[in-house]
Every structure is written in C-alpha cells, then in structure tokens.
Amino acid sequence: MHAHWRQAGLLLAVLAGVASGARADEVSDLRALITRGDLPAALARAELAVAAQPRDAQLRFLRGVVLMDLGRDAEALDAFTRLTQEHPDLPDPYNNIGLLQARAGQPEAALAALQEALRCDPGHRTARANLGQVHLVLAVKSWDRLARTGPMDPALHRKLEAARALLAPQPLPATAPPTAR
What is the pTM of this model? Predict the structure, then answer.
C-alpha cells in the first residue's frame, strides 16, 4: 500500500476519554516529537511513558504510531492488537491495524479491520477513506485475475487502468502542508 494512506494517529478524541493517567504535557510532548519527525526520540519517550503508565491507552496508541512510522510493523501490529483486546470499542487501533495489513499486501485482512473500526464508529472518516482505498485494491486484484483468463471488455479494461492510476503513488509537492495523521 502507499504511504499516503491516512493514519488516525494523532486524532484521538475517543482515546482521550480512555487515557486515565497520561499527563497532558507528556502526551503533548510526545505528539510534538512525532510531528517534528524525531521518531527515535519519540519512541524513547513513549517507551518511558508506557513503562510508567502501562494501562494508559493513549500513550500506548502513540507508541504504536511511532513504531508504525519507524517501519517496525510487527511491533506496531502487536501494540494495536493488544489495544483492541483491552478496548474493543476504540476505532483508531483497528484503523491502524488495517493500514498495517494493507501495507503487508493483505487487503482482505485490512478490509476486516477497517470494517471493525467503522463498527466502533460509523462516522470515522479516516477509516472510511482507508476502506475506500482497500476496496479499490480489491477491485484491481479481481479485475487482474479476470484479465489473465482472456480478453476483457474494453469498458472494464478502462476501469482497471483508471483504478491502477488512482493507486499509483502521487508525487508530493515541494512544500507539502502539514497533514493530520
């Protein structure tokens, strides 16, 4: 999958209500490190914070986001999976599980995780956007299988090419504005 997929990462209004012990400055400092891209420092800070407050869902989620951003996908997947086991009604961990599974080339598993995020919060815009991306990947996969069996209808072939173009990585502008994660 592509890096421009949306992560719920820092948009955690739901988690803010669950995070019982996280000091606001600790979470704020951690978010600032992530936003600046200082991922090694963010991970070190997150590890210390989670060790001090192991039940804090918000800190644990942010730790998972840092792991994901560092490309340590197996560890991030484990962190988000544990959160879903302890807090099954939080959509953001399911969304990021979906992103990790999509990144690993498992669109069917990503589909299930994103649907679970939307079960938790039907209005979760990030999960809805990511679900659309997964549906597009699955459509291309299905149409590719069809193309291998013989000639395709020209209209369907145009749809396949358009879907592939939509999935192609887009170059970022030279000065990209900051985006919500």
Answer: 0.81
